[in-house]
């Protein structure tokens, strides 16, 4: 098949490119290299079935041609990482909202199947305090104030989901929404805030591992290869169309425990330093205390058991940065 991957030079997109090329597909990538990089796709540069277009997904003429000639679209292009979102809010909103509008509008023009990558950010801080239930696809969301910049990202991704569902219901466009929880692995950069590459990079040079807040907040992490398996299976599964799927791991870890694991696994002499959120991200930041998916819907549709556990995930990141 001919497959278009927006954001195909990014962390998740580039792993998807590798896998689809391995299965014999012809892959077209559009990426503006804002947070993605040529390095992520250089292993494919000489392959005949790989095509890279360096441009923004907001360029309608370019996107029109790509959507027209491809059979399926994985829309992975998005502003990514809490640090980036805090520092460049206009770009975040424009990329996420206008970019997805463009992809869906063109997919609908030629009736091409689209998988939209969404984010567990859409839940906001609903898992704080009393509410300790795991997050189902239709669990209520809880956003902070519009003066807290972090929630702009959450709202932009939620709008992407609304728009995708609207295209499905009103225009019968085949769409699938994958709501990705914290995804980790080689090629993920720590530059935009992500915690595991940050901790590992610091530990490897024996610099202080910086835990934001008191470290009692928890997350659940999934290995990139496990996520890629699911994305490809979802795209192939007719029953997935018109639905949202949580894609993640139900195993939780606190950020403090994570720091200790990274320190131990790297044999590092790094101190663990606690930094107030305000100092780490500047004003306008609010964290969520927990975020853990209920993945029953996904498991009802396909066999899914993440193959790589947290130790394996951390080790893969250590190996990557050592190289
Ligand atoms: N975090 C941290 N130190 C870092 C980077 C992140 O303590 O160097 C914390 C962050 O405040 C959050 C958690 O780790 O509570 C996960 O952050 P990340 O940006 O990786 O993902 P998200 O907040 O989107 O889940």
Key features?
single chain, 323 residues, alpha/beta, Rossmann fold, seven-stranded parallel beta sheet, two-stranded parallel sheet, binds uridine-5'-diphosphate
Your description of this structure?
Strand 5, helix 6 (150-171) and strand 6 form a beta-alpha-beta unit. This protein has one domain: 3-Layer(aba) Sandwich (Rossmann fold), CATH 3.40.50. The protein is α/β, with parallel strands linked by helices and 323 residues long. The protein has helices spanning 11-22, 38-41, 60-69, 82-87, 89-110, 150-171, 195-204, 224-236, 255-266, 277-281, 296-301, 310-322; strands spanning 2-6, 26-31, 50-54, 72-75, 113-119, 175-180, 183-184, 209-212, 218-219, 222-223, 244-247, 253-254, 272-275. The two termini are 34 Å apart. The site of uridine-5'-diphosphate has 13 residues, from helix 7 and strand 8.
Which residues sit in consecutive blocks of at least 5 with pLDDT less than 50?
A: none
Q: Rounded to an integer, what's the Rg over CA atoms?
A: 19 Å
Number of helices: 12
Domains, number: 1
Bound molecules: uridine-5'-diphosphate
The CATH superfamily bears the name NAD(P)-binding Rossmann-like Domain
Strand order of the largest sheet: 3-2-1-4-5-6-11
Q: Give the amount of beta strand, in percent.
A: 15-25%
Output the structural class: alpha/beta
State the shape: globular
Give the CATH class. Alpha Beta
CATH architect. name: 3-Layer(aba) Sandwich
CATH topology (level 3) name: Rossmann fold
- Give the helix level as a range of percent: 40-55%
Largest sheet properties: 7 strands, parallel
């Amino acid at each position: 098949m001919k497959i278009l991957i927006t954001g195909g030079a990014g962390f998740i997109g580039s792993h998807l490119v590798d896998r689809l090329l391995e299965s014999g597909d012809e892959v077209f990538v559009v990426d503006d290299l804002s947070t993605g990089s040529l390095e992520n796709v250089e292993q494919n540069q000489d392959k005949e079935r790989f095509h890279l277009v360096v441009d923004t997904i907001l360029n309608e003429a370019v996107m029109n041609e790509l959507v027209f000639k491809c059979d399926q679209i994985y829309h992975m292009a998005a502003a990514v990482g809490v640090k980036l979102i805090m520092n460049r809010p206009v770009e975040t909103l424009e990329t996420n909202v206008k970019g997805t509008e463009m992809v869906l509008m063109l997919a609908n023009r030629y009736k091409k199947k689209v998988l939209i990558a969404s984010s567990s950010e859409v839940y906001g801080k609903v898992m704080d305090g009393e509410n300790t239930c795991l997050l189902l696809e239709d669990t209520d969301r809880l956003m902070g104030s519009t003066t807290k910049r972090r929630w702009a990202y959450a709202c932009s991704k939620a709008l992407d989901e609304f728009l995708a569902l609207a295209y499905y219901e009103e225009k019968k466009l085949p769409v699938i929404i994958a709501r990705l929880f914290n995804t980790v692995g080689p090629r993920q950069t720590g530059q935009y805030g992500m915690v595991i590459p940050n901790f590992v990079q610091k530990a490897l040079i024996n610099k202080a591992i910086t835990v934001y807040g008191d470290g009692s907040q928890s997350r659940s992490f999934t290995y990139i290869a496990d996520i890629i398996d699911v994305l490809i299976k979802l795209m192939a599964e007719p029953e997935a169309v018109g639905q949202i799927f949580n894609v993640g791991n139900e195993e939780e870890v606190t950020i403090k425990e994570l720091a200790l694991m990274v320190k131990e696994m790297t044999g590092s002499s790094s101190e663990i330093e606690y930094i107030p959120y305000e100092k780490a991200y500047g004003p306008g930041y609010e964290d969520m205390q927990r975020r853990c998916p209920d993945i029953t819907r996904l498991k009802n549709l396909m066999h899914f058991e993440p193959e790589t556990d947290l130790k394996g995930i951390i080790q893969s990141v250590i190996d990557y940065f050592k190289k």
